[in-house]
Amino acid sequence: MSEHWTAQQIPDQTGRVAVVTGASSGLGLVTARELARAGATVIMACRNLEKGERAARQVAGGVLERLDLAELDSVRAFAERFAANHARLDLLINNAGVMAPPRRVSADGFESQLATNHLGHFALTGRLLASLLAAPEPRVVTLSSTAHRIGRIDFDDLQGERRYQPWRAYGQSKLANLMFCFELQRRASAAGTALRSMAAHPGYAATNLQFAGPAHFYERAFMAVSNRVFAQSAEMGALPTLYAATVRDLPGGTFVGPDGFREQRGHPRVVAAAARAGDEGAWLRLWDVSETLTGVRYEFSPRS
Ligand SMILES: NC(=O)c1ccc[n+]([C@@H]2O[C@H](COP(=O)([O-])OP(=O)(O)OC[C@H]3O[C@@H](n4cnc5c(N)ncnc54)[C@H](OP(=O)(O)O)[C@@H]3O)[C@@H](O)[C@H]2O)c1
Q: Is 129 close to ligand 1, i.e. is its CB under 6 Å away?
């Protein structure tokens, strides 16, 4: 099925409700646009409403909502508005992210990459869980990266308070995305629910990511050249997400990435995570820490 799979092969999404985080730019915008084109109602969850409005003009019927993942109050408010307006959520795309900025602290006092990429999505998924479990075939797709391979979960210094290195912190957050995906699937299955938790990575795609985070001029200049020479388009980069979100027979816990050289470019296929991402003890520990830090507890009520 995966050979040269394109967005044209997305099954009909009519009647499905999707939330895409970080839909104002890059992969999130393409993901929102393609899901809407396939018939889904797409809620574009964006932190910057002005940017979001410009993006929403490119998404047929796209509904813009404010969501700042680095602010737990904003996550709670978003989930409450969603539940008030929608009977169920079929598809949650945990896409938004930041890469390798200098150390900053979120509104809740968390290191900004951990806050945005992992903790915000952990809280969001937990707060939307009842809406997801109300759907017949709910899916959550969480964006990771090949950078998960350089990541370690440093439980003794999760927030980089003692030592912060921007790329290591990015790798940690992207490994956390994968561990979250796997542990969510384990819990969803154990509770007898139909929820499927998937992960995807885009390889290397030219987006705003390479310019939003890194602070140094030389890093940005390097990225500008590298984006032109090596990166694939955001349209190609969004395919693994769209594949994980919509291809019918994929089992929960599947990780999807590009099929080309070193998974940097190409069409979607099922890929393997680094061995470290399979450490189930770390999944549990990360889950517990994430619950403590966000104050969000997952309540599964089995459907069958
Ligand atoms: N591009 C790649 O090569 C690549 C490779 C591996 C993984 N990824 C992953 O792909 C995902 C999407 O990245 P992209 O490449 O599309 O980058 P992008 O063009 O920079 O898009 C990132 C999106 O996340 C949003 N965002 C950032 N912080 C947020 C916050 N606190 N709350 C809500 N939204 C926030 C951004 O909003 P603003 O528009 O307001 O900034 C933007 O919409 C990320 O998770 C990234 O780690 C990308």
A: no
